[in-house]
């Protein structure tokens, strides 16, 4: 019997969208990536991972805590939000360690990838439109609301399962092994595109088959 | 009598193009920034500074020396070059400390801003098309060649003048004071745009007057 991943691999190659739930640029890109993918007959394969683990390898640091760059980022997030016509609110204590939504995503994906995709987008909206730090399973499940057709207790228990925790670890290991060090980070037919700024190049690449 | 800077300020507000001569993304953006500026009736004000000094404030590090990100950057530079139809060659020992071209730029600018602009573009081409590390005045002057209408000895002596050194220090201080932490970093009517990836947004911003 084919697994979820087998099915994803068998469909016309999806655009992998690697991201951290605590990443504002992932939020912005999440609102455009499906339009870009659909334009080229592609699906989006949502791939949350823990950016903080990648930072340990690269020595990079979060935007908000970097002098000068943090000020620019805050200015830019407001500018991006105005351009997209969405409200933007940075969650308190940003960046937050996005373990609960990342774990729950993979638990949901094993059951229904479409539900998991909606959950991913909903969590990014909750984090950056409503400004909710998704730091525990209860908050995450409440933020997801009716999008997830499972009882809250089931989801909260799932987020604590060792196998679910391991799945996120495996995905994060996979990200590092494949050279993914930022969020969002898109891969199309093996070609890497780092950053929300690269949606236009990804679009161009998909349109012409690369150069 | 108006100084060079007074004249620049009196013309329709130019696009400030802050960059480090050792920055591949500055090289790529240097090949497009004038087209973008001209489309909106703007001039380009070339502003070399020392990115390494900014790194001391931000804690950021050079692309090539960052694990994972360095591999991506090298892949991306080749991709950008293919897209622009230019050859790309990383100078040996990259990144290099770009003191000589930066100092000579400001010495030239005080005499003829148009010559200084041509010198800036020529040095970026020398660094990244020919792969020449511009680490000393002799190499820089030789790379600039006939673009600069001064004897080589005059230029080599100029690069060592305390006042010229101080001018570069002042410009680098200005960059940090104004929140400039990367290369290229463009400013249009006070609005900051970081990175070659933001040429499209800068173009859009200039076209509509901002949002």
UniProtKB/TrEMBL annotation, chains A, B:
<dbReference type="Pfam" id="PF01323">
    <property type="entry name" value="DSBA"/>
</dbReference>
<dbReference type="InterPro" id="IPR001853">
    <property type="entry name" value="DSBA-like_thioredoxin_dom"/>
</dbReference>
<dbReference type="InterPro" id="IPR014440">
    <property type="entry name" value="HCCAis_GSTk"/>
</dbReference>
<feature type="domain" description="DSBA-like thioredoxin">
    <location>
        <begin position="15"/>
        <end position="204"/>
    </location>
</feature>
<dbReference type="InterPro" id="IPR036249">
    <property type="entry name" value="Thioredoxin-like_sf"/>
</dbReference>
<dbReference type="InterPro" id="IPR044087">
    <property type="entry name" value="NahD-like"/>
</dbReference>
<comment type="similarity">
    <text>Belongs to the GST superfamily. NadH family.</text>
</comment>
<keyword id="KW-0413">Isomerase</keyword>
<protein>
    <recommendedName>
        <fullName>2-hydroxychromene-2-carboxylate isomerase</fullName>
        <ecNumber>5.99.1.4</ecNumber>
    </recommendedName>
</protein>
<dbReference type="GO" id="GO:0016853">
    <property type="term" value="F:isomerase activity"/>
</dbReference>
<dbReference type="InterPro" id="IPR051924">
    <property type="entry name" value="GST_Kappa/NadH"/>
</dbReference>
């Amino acid at each position: 019997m084919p697994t979820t991943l087998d099915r994803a691999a068998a469909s016309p190659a999806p655009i992998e969208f690697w991201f951290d739930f605590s990443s504002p640029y992932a939020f912005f890109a999440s609102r455009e990536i499906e339009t870009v993918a659909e334009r080229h007959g592609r699906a989006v394969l949502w791939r949350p991972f823990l950016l903080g683990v990648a930072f340990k390898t690269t020595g990079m640091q979060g935007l908000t805590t970097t002098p000068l760059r943090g000020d620019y980022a805050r200015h830019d997030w407001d500018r991006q939000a105005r351009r997209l016509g969405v409200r933007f609110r940075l969650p308190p204590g940003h960046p937050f360690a996005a373990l609960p939504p990342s774990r729950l995503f993979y638990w949901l994906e094993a059951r229904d990838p479409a539900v998991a995709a909606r959950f991913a987008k909903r969590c990014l909206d909750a984090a950056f439109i409503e400004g909710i730090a998704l730091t525990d399973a209860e908050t995450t499940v409440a933020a997801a609301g009716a999008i997830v057709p499972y009882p809250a207790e089931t989801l909260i228990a799932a987020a604590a399962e060792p196998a679910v925790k391991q799945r996120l670890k495996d995905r994060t290991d996979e990200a590092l092994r494949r050279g993914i060090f930022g969020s969002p980070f898109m891969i199309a037919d093996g070609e890497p595109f780092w950053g929300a700024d690269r949606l236009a190049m990804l679009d161009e690449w998909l349109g012409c088959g690369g150069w």
